[in-house]
Structure formats: C-alpha cells, structure tokens
Specification:
- 42% of the residues lie in helices and 15% in strands.
- The protein has one domain: P-loop containing nucleotide triphosphate hydrolases (Rossmann fold).
- The chain starts with a helix and ends in a 9-residue tail after the last helix.
- Helix 2 crosses helix 13.
- The chain has 295 residues and is of the alpha/beta class.
- The protein is globular and about 55 Å long.
Length: 295
C-alpha cells in the first residue's frame, strides 16, 4: 500500500489545459451538486465513480468540479490525471468575471474532464464573505462549460459555507449521499433545509435529484432497517432505487488512484455505480430542464 500511494502521488504533474479559450459548444449540461453535511458518507467516491460511469457506460462528456478544499477527486483519479494551471480559487476570487474553462483539464479517461485540486479553497471560502453576489460567482463562470459538457458534477465540501452555497446555486440538481448512520440521516434534513433556503431566499430553482444510500453493509441488517426505515418514512419519494454496497474494491480503487471501472469493472461496487448512472440519466430526462445554458 505504501509503495502504491507513493507511486500514485508522482502522477500529479503538470499538463496543458483541456481546451484553452474554449468557445461555446452546443450541449446543454445538467449540473449536479453532490452534497452532504457529514463527511465520510462516500461523497467523493460517488462523485468520481458516477462521473466515470456516465462517461464510460452512458457515452457522455462529463466535467467534475472539485470545490472541496481536500482535493480528493484528483487523488482518487491520480493515475489518470495531470494537475496544473489555473485554480478554482483564481476563478472565484477574480475581480472581473472569469470562465471556468480556464481551469478545466482533460483526463486519460475518455469523456472525463476535471478541475485541479486547490488547497487554497479553505481561504477562498472566507474571502468570499466580502464579495457582493458571492453565491452566484460559480454560476456565472459555468456558462461556457454548460455548453461543452453533457453533465457537470460538483464535489462539495462537507459543510455549509460559501463554497457549498456557490455549488448549490450553480446546480440544477443536488444528489445527497447518506450512509447507514444516525448522523448521516440527521445531515440529510439539514441539507434539504438548505435546498429550501436556496429556492426561497436566493430564488434559485434547485431540485433534489435523490437521496443515495451508501456504504450499505449486508451484515448490519438491524441498522440498515432502522436507518432505511427512517429514510423511507421521511423522504420516500426522494430515495433512489440504487444503493451502494460496502465493497472493498471501492476503497482499493481509491487507494490505487483509479475509478472502480478501471480497477475492478466486474465488482459489486462497479455494478452499483453503473446502475446509478442509468437511474440518474432517467431521472434527469424525466425532470423539467433547467439547464438552458442561458444563465
């Protein structure tokens, strides 16, 4: 494991931008924020593997925006990405509007692009407090990207700060991962309350794509029934059919710096995320389109 991680860290080396000065395209991307108020519920694992599933099994062009200062998206895909260039902080803190495409990088996974990890986002969150219209900066920076990708997925920090609010206001839908724990269950209520605030106070039509049950362990049936029953009682219409099982291959893939589809494509984890991608596509197709690209 030590050698694997050491070798993986060397992969984070510079590369040129995906498409410098990219002109508008013809796509009309849906933007999904993956958000949770509690860490450790599989938020980044879901962001990475859902994005890879959409690219590899649904034939989409997908962009991951890593707005979490921890930068775990690039770490999880370090065998397939080379990191350098304009940071997300540069975009968000610019005194004049800038285009997010300046920070977008291609990966070695066909159809998948991403923004680089940015440790400075911790400071950025605080500095945004002084900016007028701070909740809308990322939304404005996404105008070109919306026309060049089919789906954009934002990995949010596990808290409700200015970065998370930017992600929610930039998004059309929010996907809420919830593992089988009481703290994660309580966090769902907090997150859905924030969605209501975004809708009512910020006048942004953010919809809930669904609540995704994660880290479901067949050996803890009693806990699963208790938390699953509480979710069903309170949020039945929001719960996705797909559930992500506890699967050692998911953790091993992350340690190896690969998506589950690169590391163990026949594993239960891979099959679950493939099913999730299909369900997400179906839900997005059935939902009223908010992604006009005109924002």
């Amino acid at each position: 494991m030590k050698n694997l991680l050491s070798a993986g860290l060397k992969k984070l080396r510079p590369v040129s931008p995906a498409e410098p000065n990219a002109a508008p395209g013809r796509s009309r991307a849906q933007v999904i924020a993956v958000a949770a108020q509690k860490g450790g519920v599989g938020k980044t694992t879901t962001t990475v593997n859902l994005a890879c599933a959409l690219a590899q099994t649904q034939g989409q062009r997908v962009l991951i925006i890593d707005i979490d200062p921890q930068g775990h998206v690039a770490s999880s895909l370090r065998e397939s990405v080379r990191i350098a260039g304009t940071s997300l902080s540069d975009i968000l803190l610019a005194h004049t509007p800038r285009d997010l495409m300046e920070a977008v990088r291609d990966s070695e996974i066909e159809g998948l692009s991403l923004t680089p990890p940015d440790k400075a986002l911790n400071e950025t969150d605080t500095r945004l407090s002084t900016r007028v219209g701070r909740e809308y900066i990322l939304q404005g920076a996404l105008k070109t990207a919306r026309t060049r990708f089919d789906t954009i997925i934002i990995d949010c920090p596990p808290n409700l700060g200015n970065l998370t609010l930017n992600a929610l206001v930039a998004a059309d839908q929010v996907l809420v991962p919830c593992d089988m724990s009481i703290l994660a269950f309580e966090g769902v209520a907090d997150l859905l309350g924030t969605v209501s605030v975004v809708n009512d106070r910020l006048r942004h039509p953010l919809a809930v794509l669904g609540i995704l049950r994660t880290r479901v362990d067949g050996r803890t049936q009693q806990i699963n029934e208790a938390i699953g029953g509480a979710l069903d009682e309170n949020y039945r219409h929001l719960i996705l059919d797909t559930a992500i099982p506890v699967n050692s291959a998911l953790a091993q893939a992350q340690a190896a710096g690969r998506s589950i589809f690169q590391y163990a494509p026949t594993s239960r984890g891979a099959q679950a995320y493939k099913a999730l991608a299909g369900e997400v596509v179906s839900r997005l197709q059935a939902a009223p389109s908010a992604a006009s690209g005109a924002r």
